[in-house]
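User:
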Amino acid sequence: MEVAKTRQMGPNKMKDDPFARVIAAEAGAAIEEMKLTLIHNFEAMMVCCRAGVPIPIDDRVRYRYDSAVVADRCLALSSKMLKAAGSGGIRSNSDLLSLHLDILASQAHVANNATPFASNLGGVLFGEENADFAV
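Assistant: Predicted structure:
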């Protein structure tokens, strides 16, 4: 199968692999979505700041989750890219692997652990009080 042969050639030939192209499209769209969410959230916060009004807690809880989930989403996309790259993607000199490990390392920071922020946001969406006193 041609696709299997292309994958065995590593990331330099990923551009010719239809599966890698789909992953590239997904990654590009997801990155744009995450950037737009970040920009939207900052703009909304600045509107409040310029008006001299506090940022509503419900919004702050969502902004916190939106920020933390980026690392998870990037790791999932990077994992798909590594899989598409085949054996060439996991060699020690692979740029793709190096970037993947950097994304993985970012998850060690408490701010990038989306689970507690997701739980808090879910609770707030169900009408519970905010449980994150850092927002």
